[in-house]
Amino acid sequence: ISDQKPLGCWSVKHGQILTCPVVCNFETHEYIAVHDDKVLRIWKNEDINLDKAFKATLSADVYRIHSLPDGGPLVLFRGGGVRTLDVLLEAPQQEIENVISDEVIRWSGAFMEGQQPVLIFTTEKDEDFFVYVQKPKLSSLHKYKLEQQESSKPLCFAAHVTNHTVTLLCLYSNDSVYQVLIPLQQDTEEEEEKEILSKSLLLNFSVPGTVLKGTSLVVLDKDHVAVLGSLAVPGKEPRECLSIWNTKFQTLQTSKELPLGTSGQLWCYEEKFFLIHGKVLTVIMYKCETSSLAAAVGKLKDSQNLDVSSFVNWNTLEDEELVVSFQSQECVALKAESKMNLRSRRSTVAKVQPEGLSVGQLLLNLKDASTYVLESELRQLMSKAPTPDLQATIGCVVTALTDRCKRNPKYYPQNFLQEIVETRDLSYSLCPDLMAVALERKDMHLLQTCLERFPDIPEEITYACLKAFLSISEAHLQNIDLNLDSVICYIDVEFDDKEVKTEIVENGFSAEMEQDMCDTKIPRETQSSSDVDSCPVGLQKAALLNAVLHSAYTETFLLPHLKNLPAQQAILFLRYLYYLYVKCSEKINTTLPGTRSPTINQIMDWMCLLLDAHFTVMVMLPEAKELLSNLHKFVRAQVRFYSELNKIEGSLRELQRLNHLRESQTYSIEVLEII
After folding, report:
1. Residues with Cβ < 8 Å from 300, sequence gap 6 or more?
2. Which residue among 203, 223, 415, 622 is least enclosed by CB atoms within 10 Å?
3. Which pTM value belongs to this model?
């Protein structure tokens, strides 16, 4: 999510339609989907073709599939019937009862109550709303009718289960949230008579001068809810916003406008909001703390007060100054809503740092401090940070350092940054400006370390590093201290830094066979330089390029950037990849020696990417002709060699079978003719 890398993609056939959200089975790590209302599909992450995945045609239309971490998937049918996935797969064509009559399901949710899964869904018929509570494993069903609300109706629902009671929250069209308490009754097999559920007003979205029209509601904890909707101000156009409310004290905790618009849907999972903002999926982290009256009232008095009971990291929505607040041993990132207020706050902060000062305030105070004071305070801050908050603290420290680098071109704490990246478990998303600053300052060692350690580097930055590595001169690299562990074991260097020519014997080939198959011969002798005999780049540049090969990427996002690589640099990179490819082929296990050396798969993937991006250009360039020809002949020879191996695969298996059948104490001589 942090750098928008798709990890898997599957599609149904033309004409088929996915008719309910896909879920993950937490027990088996499988995906479950339904298309065309009745066709169930189950597949794993490594499966590529959805059409070849497990398929079961059901006897009734499916409304939703709910997956519980400890209770397994539950399948809710449009007629109100519920089955666990295991029971359904035993007989996919089993008859599904119709629980509801002429009613339409409007919402459903699944929860665990002790060891039993509980499924709740609401229906509508003739402007009346009903609530069903089912325990499918116990064949328990209870039906209720919601008390009607004059001149308004429910827009959406949310629920949670605590202490054997279902708390159903209903967002009504009169800009209010009502609460309905439903006790989980003793399990019976008969459907009880409809009982009318009374509701109580939980929250009214009344902010002075504004009216909040909610469209989606999610429960964060027992005291907080999040609402996605439009904020109507008299005389102005409505503006969509996301807000968090304290239901215990009926106060607005925080809110953020969404100027690009939303789809009206809001999801919440593992302390992250998911919503469609404009044309992208936006993920926003939040943290709810224990609700208190002081925090709630404080929020109303001062919208900039950091001591609130609910925090949200608005980083993903706009680029403003970052303030990090520590409260109750919990670290939360928060975007301040006004730079003006931040500036005014800076002027009132004392120069002496008190013990309880927040990280954000400390960093603001150190903005104009001397280099020595800044680095000393930051080292002390990292050493004192509590373990749960350590990562966020270090990310803020790096951000403070890179901000100063951008403000002051003469300032660059190279050793300090290198020490932090090497000794701390960082990621790109924690310090997104670090690699950009390192590229600007041409800090090749730091870029190499980041590429080797960060798991979430965007493809644009990976490409920028590759271009920088290929364009820098070998003479300049001689004076840079780099990690050479990935190359030192397979590139031999003499005292004058010239590579020793090593004998190239391809895996499974002799020079004569190569001559016969490919009409060319890769020389065994240590002669003049060629694409295979010598590494086309120096030791330092090879180490940098290996770091790029190890960086994770998605082809769809990397290919457009790779097409912008200058032709000469693309040829140089392809020569190096070809050199690595031949080196791997020398080894019987196709593995290069050394620490973090490129794998054969990484080399092949990058070769394919580079050829896809520059094939037309390379075909036209005379200097690339010999390289492409040699690469083609080498790959063709390997394909022929493995094809020959495939021909004797049956004979080899037969030998293996005979070895198992032979009695260990019997002596015999057998002659097998391989045709």
Report:
1. 251, 252
2. 622
3. 0.53
